[in-house]
Write a structure and sequence with these properties.
Order of helices and strands: HEHHEHEHEEHEEEHHHEEHEEEH
CATH superfamily of the largest domain: Type I PLP-dependent aspartate aminotransferase-like (Major domain)
Shape: globular
Strand order of the largest sheet: 2-8-7-6-5-3-4
Number of strands: 13
CATH topology of the largest domain: Aspartate Aminotransferase, domain 2
CATH architecture of the largest domain: 3-Layer(aba) Sandwich
Number of domains: 2
Strand content: 15-25%
Length: 352
C-alpha cells in the first residue's frame, strides 16, 4: 500500500541500512512526556478488558480543558477517523477546500460522493488565506474545511478572518470545520472550541498526536454541536479508541504545559533551520508551526537522495497546488536540524 503521507519508515529502510532521522512527520520535538508513556504501559495491564466505548472520562477532561460541554466532544482513532466520520455524518453534496491543504479532507468527502471545490492559495501571498475565499462560499456549499496552521504551509489564519468566514458559512447554511491539530505548537491562542456553543455549525478538530508526540496511539477529537456528536458516534464501529489511548490522553491533559514547552523550543530552532535552508538555495515559506515548507526548484527526487543518507523528508508533490519540487520538513532539536542541513547540502551538490 502506498503511503500518501509522511512517516514511511519501512520504505526509508529499503534505501538506508543505518539509523534514520524522520523529518517527514511533525510532532513535538520534546517527544512523548514520560508520564504518558507510564500511563499507556499501565493501561496495557488491562488489555483483557474492553475500553469505555464513550470515552467518558476523557471527554469530561477535554471539556474542562477546552471550556465546552462533554456532550460537545467526540473522540476518535486519530483526527483522520474523525474526518471520515464527519463526512459520513454530514454527507454533503458540495464542499470547499483550500489548495494546498491536508489531503484527508478530500479523501473523506469524495468517499461519500461529495464534489470538492478548491480555493487556490498563492505562493506570492505566502499561501495565506485571504478574504478572497468569502466570495466562494456560495449557497450551494454545504461544508468548508480549513486548517490553521495549514498543512503543509504552516501559515495561521487570522482570527478576524475566521470570524468572517464563520459568519458567511452561517449565512448560507454551511458548516465550517477548522482543523487545529497543530495549533498548540504554533500559537498560545486558545482556538475556537469555546465558540461551538454559540455557533452550532462550527466543528473544531484537534488531536494529541502532534502536541504530545503520540502518533502510534491514534487519538484525535472534535468539538461540535451535541446533535452532530451523537451522529458521529453512530457512523462507525464501537470501541474506536483503545483503553491505552484513553489512558494516555488523560495523562497528556495532566501535563498542560508540554505543548508550550515544545513551542518555546520551536521558536528558537525554526528561524535557524529556515536560514540554513535558504543558504542552500531553498525557497522557504515562513511558517509558524513545527514544520517548514520549502521549494528546491527543479529537484524532484530530493526525498530519494536524502533517504539514501538516512534522512526522511515529506515530498509534497501530491498536494493540490504544489509541484514535485516542494518538500516539508519537521523542526526538530538543533543538533538534528544541523544533520538535516548537512545531508541536504550533500544531496544538492554536484555529486548529489
Amino acid at each position: 500500500m502506498v503511503n500518501p503521507h509522511g512517516g514511511d519508515l519501512n520504505w526509508a529502510k529499503t534505501k538506508y541500512p543505518g539509523e534514520i532521522l524522520d523529518f517527514s512527520v511533525n510532532c513535538n520535538p520534546l517527544g512523548t512526556p514520560p508520564g504518558v508513556l507510564a500511563a499507556a504501559a499501565d493501561a496495557l495491564t488491562r488489555a483483557g478488558q474492553y475500553p469505555d466505548p464513550g470515552c467518558t472520562a476523557l471527554r469530561a477532561a477535554l471539556a474542562q480543558r477546552l471550556g465546552c460541554d462533554a456532550a460537545e466532544v467526540f473522540c476518535g482513532n486519530g483526527a483522520a477517523e474523525v474526518i471520515f466520520r464527519l463526512a459520513l455524518a454530514i454527507s454533503p453534496k458540495t464542499a470547499l477546500l483550500t489548495a494546498p491543504t491536508f489531503s484527508e479532507y478530500e479523501a473523506a468527502l469524495t468517499q461519500v460522493g461529495c464534489v470538492c471545490r478548491f480555493h487556490r492559495l498563492l505562493q506570492a501571498e505566502c499561501f495565506d488565506l485571504t478574504t478572497r475565499i468569502l466570495q466562494e462560499i456560495t449557497s450551494d456549499i454545504e461544508v468548508v474545511f480549513l486548517c490553521s496552521p495549514n498543512n503543509p504551509t504552516g501559515r495561521l489564519i487570522a482570527q478576524d478572518l475566521l470570524m468572517a468566514i464563520l459568519a458567511r458559512c452561517e449565512a448560507v447554511g454551511a458548516r465550517l470545520v477548522v482543523d487545529e491539530c497543530f495549533l498548540p505548537l504554533a500559537s498560545d491562542t486558545p482556538g475556537l472550541s469555546a465558540w461551538v456553543k454559540d455557533h452550532p455549525r462550527l466543528v473544531v478538530l484537534r488531536a494529541f498526536t502532534k502536541s504530545y508526540a503520540v502518533p502510534a496511539l491514534r487519538l484525535g477529537y472534535c468539538v461540535a454541536a451535541p446533535e452532530l456528536v451523537e451522529r458521529l458516534q453512530r457512523w462507525g464501529g464501537c470501541w474506536n479508541v483503545s483503553g491505552v489511548a484513553q489512558a494516555a490522553g488523560l495523562a497528556c491533559l495532566r501535563v498542560p504545559d508540554w505543548p508550550q514547552q515544545g513551542r518555546a523550543l520551536l521558536a528558537a530552532a525554526r528561524p535557524a533551520l529556515a536560514a540554513g535552508l535558504e543558504k542552500l538555495g531553498c525557497i522557504v515559506v515562513p511558517g509558524s508551526a513545527n514544520y517548514l515548507l520549502f521549494r528546491l526548484p527543479g529537484i524532484e527526487d530530493l526525498k530519494e537522495r536524502a533517504a539514501a543518507r538516512g534522512i526522511l523528508l515529506r515530498s509534497c508533490g501530491n498536494y493540490r497546488g504544489l509541484s514535485p519540487d516542494y518538500y516539508r520538513v519537521a523542526v526538530r532539536r538543533p543538533a538534528e536540524n544541523q544533520r538535516l542541513l548537512a545531508v541536504l547540502a550533500a544531496c544538492i551538490s554536484k555529486e548529489g
